[in-house]
Design goal:
With 209 residues, the chain is α/β, with parallel strands linked by helices. Bound molecules: 5-O-phosphono-D-xylulose. 5-O-phosphono-D-xylulose binds next to strand 2, strand 8 and helix 7. Keywords: Carbohydrate metabolism, Cobalt, Isomerase, Manganese, Metal-binding, Zinc. It catalyses: D-ribulose 5-phosphate = D-xylulose 5-phosphate. Catalyzes the reversible epimerization of D-ribulose 5-phosphate to D-xylulose 5-phosphate.
Length: 209
């Protein structure tokens, strides 16, 4: 069974509570935190995560696309993050982050950008719950899926049979099967959910894969 994690980056921020309610049939809420340094865009801070937490029982899947995530991991955990994912490519104190997330009883992920090899994850596998494969350059929603991500997912699945593998960027009805067949089990979908005419139906049909 896959877990569907709609990305609120594609939602209407002026009606976030209603948008979150519409994705009640999903499993996670994917929250892209961007700092304008690690990626060229700025999005949500911990206060918004706290507000989202008040309005949903879905798992909060917080993707930190920021430099030095050790400075912010505690505040995002306090705000209600259930999964914290940091980027392999950023400057970070991984030991600090690992201890903070584990002692809060939450899940830890590491993400790799499209140009980063899957092999870099190998040494982290014993310490993480999830590997996140970016299938677009991080920063903006609505980009085209990069098919080379499929091989990367397959490589990670060969390295670890049990780890959660999340894939993020350009996923919709036309390509979800290819990433699931490759071994991904957590699917991020932004535009294909929130820009659909019927958001509830879009969640329902992506969940069927
Ligand atoms: O992190 C990102 C983009 O940086 C993603 O989470 C996107 O928000 C996914 O959106 P779509 O590509 O599905 O529109």
């Amino acid at each position: 069974m896959i877990k569907l994690s709609p990305s609120v980056l594609a939602a209407d921020f002026a009606c976030l509570k209603d948008e979150i309610e519409k994705i009640g049939g999903a499993d996670y809420v994917h929250i892209d935190v961007m700092d304008g340094h690690f990626v060229p865009n700025i999005t949500f801070g911990p206060d918004i995560v706290k507000c989202i937490k008040k309005h949903t029982n879905l798992v909060l899947d917080v993707h930190l696309m920021i430099e030095n995530p050790e400075k912010y991991v505690d505040v995002f955990l306090k705000s209600g993050a259930d999964i914290i994912t940091v980027h392999y490519e950023c400057n970070m104190d991984f030991e600090y982050i690992k201890n903070a997330v584990k002692s809060a009883g939450k899940k830890l992920g590491i993400s790799i950008k499209p140009k980063t090899d899957a092999e870099v994850l190998e040494k982290f596998l014993p310490d993480i719950d999830m590997a996140l494969v970016m299938s677009v350059e991080p920063g903006f929603g609505g980009q085209k899926f990069m098919p080379e991500s499929i091989d990367k997912i397959k490589k990670i699945r060969l390295m670890d049979k049990n780890i959660d593998i999340e894939v993020d960027g350009g996923i919709g009805e036309d390509n979800i099967k290819s990433v699931v067949d490759a071994g991904a089990n957590v699917i991020v979908a932004g535009s294909s959910v929130f820009k659909a005419d019927d958001v509830r139906k879009a969640v329902e049909s992506l969940k069927k894969f």
